[in-house]
Sequence to fold (411 residues):
Amino acid sequence: IAASFNTPMAGVIFAMEVILMEYSIAGFVPVILASVTGATMAQLTFGSEPAFSVAPLQLSSLIELPLIIGCGIIIAVFATTMTRLHLIAARLQTINITIRLLLVGIVTGLVALYLPQVMGVGYDTIEATMQGEIALGLLLSIAIAKLLLTTFSVGLGMPGGLIGPMLFIGACVGGALGLIAEIMLPESGANASFYALLGMGAMMGAVLNAPLAALITILELSYNPNIIFPAMIITVTSVVTTRQIFGCNNIFIEQLQRVGIQLNSGTLNQVLERIGVRSVMSTQFTLCHQSMNQQTLLSILEGQDKDRQPDWLVVSKERGGLALLATKDISNTMENLETPEGDINLLSLKIRSWQLQPIAQEASLLDARKLFEDSMADALYVERYSPALKSLPLTAVAGIVMPDMIEGVYR
Fold:
């Protein structure tokens, strides 16, 4: 984005808002370096001029605000249609690749016979739209054709992007709505170029669910801070309408969900995904077998083998598997236990026993929370991966993870 449109800041915000879906110093630094590098190489090659020549534009009258809101709703319809048609076309990717590419070429060629503006990147068409050189009917025809061809082509697997086409479609729809505004409110000073630029931002924000990236894109394309106020109104309107009324998410997330990939979006999930189980696991435990000599057990409870009494006993069951006992529960039971010298069956004591499930040592707390939900496990033990330890299940335990340890992180 930084290199294609000479908008380095928009590239950074896009990456943080759409790809990483969070703002952090660790994420900002490499993304900024990438954006600056891309923009620098593009400027050295093509010059430092903006991608489009935009005249100074601003909101002429507050009477245009209802029109801008209406434009945001209409663009939301186009954004939702683009996403839904893209997902429908993607279902046809089971067809042979040769047939798909041949079909895309034939359809695109036939449409281009009548609307050649749909071909290529479309910078010239966007430029002409901003200059008011394209009539209303042609603008709408180009926008609809470009939308259908883009969703059809990319959905069928044709290599290509979506950022450029959505800016193209937004410019055409916005320019058409600007021409209508000029007719409806001639005294307001409404300008088709103004609405074309707003349409680009609104379409980008709605399709990608990235309002801030869209606003920065408009700002860098126009070099005009006066555009921000109306851009905020139309972008928020289009994004909210797309998400809340039409129930359409970011087009990339919709693509991933179609193939069964669920992103861990949300603040809580992001926090848990960044923290490994090893950072919160308890290492205050002792490994033992189900049957244990009473004196040995007392020495463990008194903390003779360690500096302090362990919190847990990880018990290897005779029939396989591991169980977890709290040493404080065992201590309370031992005080009233009248057992002759000999072995004690730890699992026969009338205390609570937690059933343990293994989890990999490189797993995150989000993985641990999902495992708790899916397996209904009482507790987890962090499992080492050394092949030499696989035959010794007790020594393969690196730590214990309880549900309250995960809750404590985000509370």
In short: Confidence is low (pLDDT under 50) at residues 387-394. The two ends are 38 Å apart (CA to CA).
